[in-house]
């Protein structure tokens, strides 16, 4: 199983980034996919999830209206479009795949997002 994130980097406040996570080694369409971030000195925070049901997504209140999660099952990829970035969005962003029915939970290595003021 592999989850490989990309798309992180340094951006100015107000800018945009799109994170991608390419999955392999499991049946992607059967798994919920999420983005979780860890900001310096804070616990991990669930940012957004896209369940295995088409169109079923949820976003944390802190990012709602600015971030959008989407998935492409044909490409085994989940995305996080991040707009109007703020310095407080600075974090390591992790891709997560979960299947509650099977009790499986996988993580990527993380990608750093830094937003300068």
What is the secondary structure topology, with strand pairs?
Elements (H helix, E strand, L loop, with lengths): L1 E5 L2 E4 L4 E8 L7 E7 L5 E7 L6 E3 L7 E6 L4 E6 L8 E9 L4 E4 L3 E6 L1
Parallel strand pairs: 2-11
Antiparallel strand pairs: 1-3, 3-8, 4-5, 4-9, 5-6, 7-8, 9-10, 9-11
Counted by DSSP, the helix tally is: 0
Largest sheet: 7 strands, mixed
Q: Taking Cα atoms only, what radius of gyration do you get, to the nearest Å?
A: 13 Å
Low-confidence stretches: none
Compute the average pLDDT: 97
What oligomeric assembly is this protein in?
single chain
Tell me roughly what share of residues is in helical segments. under 10%
Coarse structural class: mainly beta
Q: N-to-C terminal Cα separation, in Å?
A: 37 Å
- SSE ordering: EEEEEEEEEEE
Classify the beta-strand content into a percent band.
Answer: over 45%
Shape: globular
**Count the strands?**
11
Detailed description of the structure:
The chain has 117 residues and is mostly beta strands. It is built from no helices and 11 strands. Strands 2, 4, 5, 6, 9, 10 and 11 form a 7-stranded mixed sheet that branches. The chain has a 4-stranded antiparallel sheet with strand order 1-3-8-7, with no helix packed on it. Strand 9 and strand 10 form a beta hairpin. It is globular and about 40 Å long. The chain starts with a strand and ends with a strand.
Provide a brief overview of the structure.
With 117 residues, this protein is mainly β. The chain has no helices and eleven strands. Strands 2, 4, 5, 6, 9, 10 and 11 form a seven-stranded mixed β-sheet that branches. A four-stranded antiparallel β-sheet has the order 1-3-8-7, with no helix packed on it.
